[in-house]
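User: I've been trying to design a sequence by hand for this structure and keep getting stuck. Would you show me what you'd pick, starting by listing the structure so we're on the same page?

Assistant: Good idea, let's start from the same input. This is the structure you sent:
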C-alpha cells in the first residue's frame, strides 16, 4: 500500500511537471544569454538600453570605458553604425540602440553576419524614449563581410514591415 501511494505521488508530480513545461515552454535565447555591454558610466541612454535588455531576459555584464573606438574596431563594427555602446552576446556583436526583438531574431538566425547595429540614436529606440516626441522609423542593419544590409525596420521598439 505504501509503495502504491509513493508511485501515485510520483506520477502526479511528473504530470504536474510536464504541464508546467507545456505552459512555460523552453527558455528563449534571451533568457539564457549572457551579454557584455561596453559603455560609458555617464551615458543615461545606454543605461536605458541595458534596462530594456534586462527586461527581455538577458544577464548583463557592464564593462565601463570612455574610449569605445578601440572596442568597436576590435569587434569589426562599421563606422556608419557606430553608436554610444557596443554589446557582445553568444559571440555576436550588437551595436547601439537595437531593440530586444531584433537581437532575439538575429541570434536565432545570424547566418554569416558578425552582428547587427543601429547607427546614431533614433528617437524612441530603446533607451532613447522621449516623452512628447514621436518615435522615429529606423533600420537595424546586419554587418559582417561586405556592406551593411537592412535586417529589420522598427518604429520605437516595435517592428514594422518596410
Amino acid at each position: 500500500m505504501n509503495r502504491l501511494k509513493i508511485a501515485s505521488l510520483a506520477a502526479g508530480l511528473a504530470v504536474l511537471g510536464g504541464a508546467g513545461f507545456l505552459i512555460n515552454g523552453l527558455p528563449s535565447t534571451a533568457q539564457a544569454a549572457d551579454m557584455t555591454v561596453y559603455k560609458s558610466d555617464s551615458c543615461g541612454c545606454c543605461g536605458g538600453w541595458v534596462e530594456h535588455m534586462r527586461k527581455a531576459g538577458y544577464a548583463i555584464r557592464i564593462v565601463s570605458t570612455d574610449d569605445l573606438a578601440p572596442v568597436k574596431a576590435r569587434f569589426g563594427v562599421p563606422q556608419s553604425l557606430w553608436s554610444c555602446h557596443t554589446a557582445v552576446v553568444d559571440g555576436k556583436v550588437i551595436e547601439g540602440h537595437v531593440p530586444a526583438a531584433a537581437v532575439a531574431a538575429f541570434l536565432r538566425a545570424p547566418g554569416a553576419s558578425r552582428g547587427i547595429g543601429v547607427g546614431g540614436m533614433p528617437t524612441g529606440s530603446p533607451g532613447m524614449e522621449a516623452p512628447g516626441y514621436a518615435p522615429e522609423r529606423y533600420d537595424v542593419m546586419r554587418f559582417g563581410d561586405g556592406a551593411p544590409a537592412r535586417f529589420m525596420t522598427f518604429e520605437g521598439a516595435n517592428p514594422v514591415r518596410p
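That's my pick for every position. To get oriented when you compare it with your attempt: The CA atoms of residues 81 and 119 lie 4 Å apart. The two ends are 66 Å apart (CA to CA).
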